[in-house]
Amino acid sequence: MHGEFGEDGRIQGLLESEGYEYVGSDSQSSALCMDKVLTKERVLQVGVGCAPSVAWDGRMQLDAANVIGQLGNEIVAKPRSMGSSVGLHMLSGHAGLMRFLETGDPGVSGGWILEQRVRGREFSVGVLDGEAMEVVEIVLPDQSPYDYTKKYQANVTRYEVPAQVGLEIRETMRTAAVSAFVACGCRDFARVDFMLDEKKGSPVFLEINTLPGMTPKSLLPKSASGMGLGFGDLVFRMVNPALIRFRARKT
What we know:
Blueprint: H1 10-17, H2 27-34, H3 36-45, E1 53-56, H4 64-71, E2 74-79, E3 89-92, H5 93-103, E4 112-116, E5 120-128, E6 131-139, H6 148-152, E7 158-160, H7 167-183, E8 189-197, E9 203-209, H8 219-225, H9 231-250
Antiparallel strand pairs: 1-4, 2-3, 2-4, 5-6, 5-8, 6-7, 8-9
Helix pairs in contact: 1-2
């Protein structure tokens, strides 16, 4: 279940209230990770690098010049609490930011996070049972964002497993993925996404997904495959902790 109700802790809270065990992060962690602003605050506390950002509720007046002073001329506007890269806006300069602030997006509730745009290569790391799996690179034909269309509809994206990066960068991303997973209170599994800043040469945290996709194009199975873990074995490893919790309650 993706998006609101499925990923934001509500279905998890209902299951908890009825005494059911389930797979994945609990209601508090799910709600936290669905909120990009709170997630960034949490991962910054454990030293994971993030792009500078400004939270906007969609109503309060922002000083565009001040925002550009903090974030630069290239800004990414993301819905604060939506997944699958839905609602991304790429803003350029004062005029582009002003147009966005004046019109917003009526289809988005919960506000926005405005981030300094980081240009570079995009990567994903699966975390299973608190351990990082292989780094996957998302390779696009241009530098456009990896949005909903490129994830699920357009056949233009290819994936490098393992990612062709140096050992130091690989281990930095894998360590940061586990740090974010632990800091956000996740359990069982998650997917953590990064950009590799082409100017600084360092990974920048994008988001953590507590219910990542499991389609043939999805990144968590690709990350697992890089560790020699087939789809069936991955599913077993994802489900088994919930079975253990269930049995522990019965004893």
